[in-house]
Design a protein that fits this description.
The protein is α/β, with parallel strands linked by helices and about 375 residues long. Helices cover about 40% and strands about 15% of the residues. The chain has 15 helices and 14 strands. The chain binds pyridoxal-5'-phosphate.
């Protein structure tokens, strides 16, 4: 049973075992906006917190926040559901719609879709995203790695993915756009083309990272007429990971069904307040994500100078083929620099790196250059493409 998903977020037990203070570590492993949260959000929370605020139950329907989010996306409040992070909503969706059903999951991708579906008694079917292929495990792989399907850059085209959707005829489709961990971003035309291959399915589009791209767009436009479900996280672009906040856009009939199974008060009062303040900070979000796109470019240049071949991306994170991802992760840890070993995505030869402010990126590149110089053997496994 896949109850132990691995994430790029801090593993507090591991940090304790290493004697590391979580605040001292630089997390290139988490795809979070390192410039956030916006100062106004921190102030709003600090100003509001009082004994009575903490003691009072929050609005179990997050009504004010639903109104503000709905207005932003041009949808009525009853087309919005707020959750304790998007992960909470993914599991809610899987439980409401996944039992005994086949869910197509466009892969390699975020593991919570498959985990949620399996825990709900459904059947995940990993279909391949354009630009990737499925490969068999290799002898170096541990049992756990072999249990997870493995992928590599490959020749799957949009047509192949559409054909796979047509023959699978799934009940549910999960697609992450832009995708985590690979960073590709399908255009509205490409996504519509895929949908035509399985238009009878319930499509769930996870847009957790859309606002990190240069040209964000949202499938929210297809929520009402095509019955799509769109997920958006506020823990990434607004950096509210510690508070937990995400939302879902869908036809009001879908929202009602989900509300019936959502635990009451699952979004706390502080998170609701922070969300309301964050929705006024779209300019801050545009400015900081533009800075991060520059930092992605600089980081990739620095890695190429060390002989690596980072994969192209549209977002604040990207993949780097390194040979043995776990080994590189472990060798960077003593420098308090965490990268994401992508074995749990089925990519054991890749690490994922999220851009940070310039001085932290410089520390990372220095450490990589030092490791490359000190320890030549791992270099032979680099995949220069
Ligand atoms: C694609 C994707 N969706 C959803 C989530 C979960 O986000 P949240 O923090 O809002 O639960 C993540 C977190 O890593 C993610 O990568």
């Amino acid at each position: 049973m896949p109850t132990t998903s691995i994430h790029g977020t801090p593993d507090y037990a591991e940090l304790d075992a290493l004697g590391l203070d979580p605040a001292e570590v630089i997390y290139f492993s988490s795809n979070i906006n390192p410039y956030g949260p916006p100062p106004s959000v921190v102030e709003a929370v600090q100003d509001a917190i009082s004994r009575s605020f903490l003691a009072r139950y929050p609005d179990s329907r997050s009504q004010r926040l639903r109104e503000k989010i709905g207005a932003y996306h041009g949808l009525p409040p009853n087309a919005v559901l707020v959750g304790n992070g998007t992960a909470d909503l993914i599991w809610l969706l899987a439980h409401a719609y996944g039992n005994q059903r086949q869910a197509a999951i466009l892969s390699p991708t975020f593991s919570e879709y498959a985990d949620g579906v399996i825990m709900a008694g459904g059947h995940p079917n990993h279909l391949i995203l354009p630009g990737w292929q499925r490969i068999s495990g290799n002898n170096r792989a541990s049992f756990e790695q072999r249990r997870i399907q493995q992928f590599a850059p490959g020749r799957t085209t949009l047509d192949h993915t559409r054909q796979a959707l047509e023959s699978a005829a799934p009940w549910l489709v999960f697609i992450c756009n832009p995708n985590n961990p690979t960073g590709e971003y399908l255009s509205p035309g490409a996504l519509r083309y895929l949908w035509e291959g399985a238009s009878g399915a319930l499509w769930i589009v996870d847009e957790a990272y859309a606002e990190f791209t240069e040209d964000p767009w949202s499938a929210a436009q297809w929520v009402m007429d095509r019955g799509w479900i769109v997920l958006r996280s506020m823990t990434k672009d607004f950096a509210l990971g510690g508070l937990r906040l995400g939302y879902l856009l869908a036809d009001p009939s879908i929202i009602e069904r989900l509300q019936a199974v959502q635990p009451p008060w699952s979004v706390n009062g502080v998170a609701q307040l922070a969300g309301l303040a964050a929705m006024d900070e779209m300019t801050w979000r545009e400015e900081t994500t533009a800075r991060l796109r520059k930092e992605v470019w600089n980081l990739q240049e620095g890695l190429r100078a060390c002989g690596y071949a980072p994969l192209p991306t549209t977002v604040n994170y990207f993949l780097v083929p390194v040979g043995n991802a776990q080994s590189l992760r472990d060798r960077l840890m003593p420098s308090r620099l965490f990268v994401r070993d992508c074995a749990s995505f089925g990519l054991p030869e890749h690490i994922r790196i999220a851009a940070r402010p310039p001085h932290e990126n410089a520390r990372f590149l220095e450490a990589i250059a030092r490791l490359s110089a000190d320890n030549a053997p791992h270099l032979e496994q680099r995949h220069i493409q």
